[in-house]
Amino acid sequence: xxxxxxxxxxxxxxxxxxxxxxxxxxxxxxxxxxxxxxxxxxxxxxxxxxxxxxxxxxxxxxxxxxxxxxxxxxxxxxxxxxxxxxxxxxxxxxxxxxxxxxxxxxxxxxxxxxxxxxxxxxxxxxxxxxxxxxxxxxxxxxxxxxxxxxxxxxxxxxxxxxxxxxxxxxxxxxxxxxxxxxxxxxxxxxxxxxxxxxxxxxxxxxxxxxxxxxxxxxxxxxxxxxxxxxxxxxxxxxxxxxxxxxxxxxxxxxxxxxxxxxxxxxxxxxxxxxxxxxxxxxxxxxxxxxxxxxxxxxxxxxxxxxxxxxxxxxxxxxxxxxxxxxxxxxxxxxxxxxxxxxxxxxx
Length: 347
Ligand code: KG4
Ligand code: ZN
Prior knowledge:
Bound molecules: 5'-O-[(R)-(carboxyoxy)(hydroxy)phosphoryl]adenosine, zinc ion
Structural class: alpha/beta
Order of helices and strands: EEEHHEHEHEEEHHHHEHEHH
Number of domains: 2
CATH class of the largest domain: Alpha Beta
CATH architecture of the largest domain: 2-Layer Sandwich
Number of strands: 10
Strand order of the largest sheet: 3-2-1-4-5
């Protein structure tokens, strides 16, 4: 294939911000050519959460096989690509460094433009893969292991932060409650499944900040309420109603997420809501959002489940827009572990 003879743009995306090593090739920002994710979950499971040192080491071991795999599946050589886009933040600094290092080598050796991608923005861009007709403005709820953010995306690259969590993220709350109950890591998918057999109204857990009139969230009180409830039952040697407990916890989380997201859309006068991040895979959140948006005449978008959790397809999709905008990073660029949504990235 000759790069100058065609107008399609092929971006290689690389993702290593947490515990998934991902690479993907995406055409014109919206079509997946190939995508590979190597999960490290089994190496972190026995520790009950992500161990940063293990994450970095595993990324280093895995990144080259993952890159070979993604190119092989696409029948591509590096020469067939137009640019390499890599997560520059937010994330674990050592983990980010591994992907950034690999991307720099490819950029330097193959002469490809190097693009830094904001991982939070990329979670939103996962939606553009599945919904080619989707365009801003819209309200986005980003719920992941590291973040809980309600944002107004006015245009490509233009965000207004409406609210965020003041303590734990939603994914973190799921993971901590699951760890406490001995359900393993990550907790979200397990609680999602178990809740299907539980009664979400069985236990009345607090709906924190439901009536504060702003768009911020707080999850740590709910987490403590669950832990107290369980400790109390254990002390009295009562059986723990696991399914009802996790379903009630999940209902308390989702009630607030749904109410504030729909309220944000109404206040902004926007009829589109976009879910993003690992917790957007949650079946109860999706179901409740579908119900609430339907009655308000709001269009709801969420990505395919495999695009909700960390992957490089979304990185390549977000990188495409930055490619077209001429945004580049230099070979001296450093990871930005606390990068915020909408924050500028070094040229
Ligand atoms: O977006 P992500 O892969 O990583 C970050 O950027 O943080 O999100 C991972 C989080 C974990 O906390 C995991 O428990 C949660 O997403 N998660 C879920 C589900 N699938 C993953 N939470 C609730 N329900 C799910 N089905
Ligand atoms: Zn993520």
